[in-house]
């Protein structure tokens, strides 16, 4: 059983607090290259140092900014490997899956399904309201974006899945010996991590329904499937295909994508549709393909292993 793999007598919850502190510290270390590059360029060119986050994010070309931001997640992965091995005496495999081997077929299937849905809904939006979009495609910057995205975005999304649906999911299971509490807590923390995104400023706190709902969906498929594979594939598709397809001036990442959304953002029914309609459909697809059963026990049952 996946969540129980980290539940053992010597694995006190306090160890997960210390492990989280180390991971957060590593994330801050990973931001140093961005700061150094920014200070170096300002000193070299004699330009004014950007005085707010929006200016910082737009100081460099978007490909350079994306690269420097994503580098920090390499530090997160490395720190998590260290924490798992030396603090918890566990392998990375134990927070990846309960299967003997990582099921790449599951990762690729989830990636393909969400990629297809993302492309499909983007095309529908484009043809339904073409005035809301401009063609943003530039071959060379886009090619560079593809290289950066294919290499680093899966590292970013995997780091988040390993931390939330792997490490913290098992950590909270050591605190409260049931499954609904780790599921709820990791979903709330995952959503809360997005609270300072530019999208929240533009659309208001209601968009947190989407972020928390997405965290809940990822937690459910992890518990039901006894591993991270489906969550890894979904998250990678969501961020990678999204970065390649469409950007906007108010999104967290500005990229040299194919399209640019120039509409004024507003939070409406489209915020709730993924959580209440699309995610349940995906749960149905996954449950049919992988023959999930015993939902109540897997999502809310007690953890009997001590």
Automatic annotation (TrEMBL):
Domain CAAX prenyl protease 2/Lysostaphin resistance protein A-like, residue spans: 143-241
Any matching Pfam family: Rce1-like
Membrane-traversing stretches: 13-36, 64-87, 107-127, 139-159, 180-197, 203-223, 230-247, 267-286
GO MF terms held by the record: endopeptidase activity
Domain of life the protein comes from: Bacteria
GO biological process per UniProt: CAAX-box protein maturation
Protein keywords: Membrane, Transmembrane, Transmembrane helix
Protein's name according to its UniProt entry: CAAX prenyl protease 2/Lysostaphin resistance protein A-like domain-containing protein
Species this protein is from: Flavobacterium micromati
Organism classification: Bacteria, Pseudomonadati, Bacteroidota, Flavobacteriia, Flavobacteriales
């Amino acid at each position: 059983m996946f969540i129980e793999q980290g539940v053992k007598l010597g694995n006190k919850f306090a160890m997960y607090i210390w492990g989280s502190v180390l991971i957060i510290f590593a994330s801050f270390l990973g931001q140093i290259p961005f700061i150094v590059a920014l200070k170096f360029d300002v000193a070299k060119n004699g330009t004014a140092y950007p005085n707010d986050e929006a200016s910082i994010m737009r100081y460099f070309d978007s490909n350079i900014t994306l690269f420097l931001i994503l580098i920090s997640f390499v530090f997160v992965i490395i720190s998590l490997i260290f924490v798992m091995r030396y603090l918890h005496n566990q392998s990375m495999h134990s927070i990846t899956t309960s299967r003997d081997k990582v099921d790449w077929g599951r990762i690729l299937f989830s990636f393909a399904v969400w990629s297809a849905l993302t492309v499909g809904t983007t095309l529908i939006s484009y043809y339904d309201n073409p005035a809301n979009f401009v063609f943003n495609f530039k071959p060379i910057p886009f090619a560079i974006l593809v290289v950066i995205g294919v290499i680093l975005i899966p590292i970013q999304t995997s780091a988040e899945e390993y931390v939330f649906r792997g490490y913290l999911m098992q950590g909270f299971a050591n605190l409260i010996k049931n499954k609904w509490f780790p599921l709820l807590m990791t979903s709330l923390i995952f959503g809360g991590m997005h609270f300072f995104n530019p999208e929240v400023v533009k659309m208001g706190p209601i968009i947190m329904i989407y972020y928390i709902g997405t965290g809940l969906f990822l937690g459910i498929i992890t518990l039901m499937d006894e591993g991270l594979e489906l969550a890894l594939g979904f998250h990678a598709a969501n961020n990678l295909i999204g970065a390649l397809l469409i950007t906007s001036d108010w999104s967290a990442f500005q990229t040299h994508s194919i399209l640019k959304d120039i509409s004024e953002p507003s939070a409406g029914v489209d915020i709730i549709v993924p959580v209440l309609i699309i995610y349940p459909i995906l749960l149905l697809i996954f449950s049919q393909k992988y023959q999930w059963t015993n939902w109540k026990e897997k999502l809310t049952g007690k953890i009997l292993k001590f």
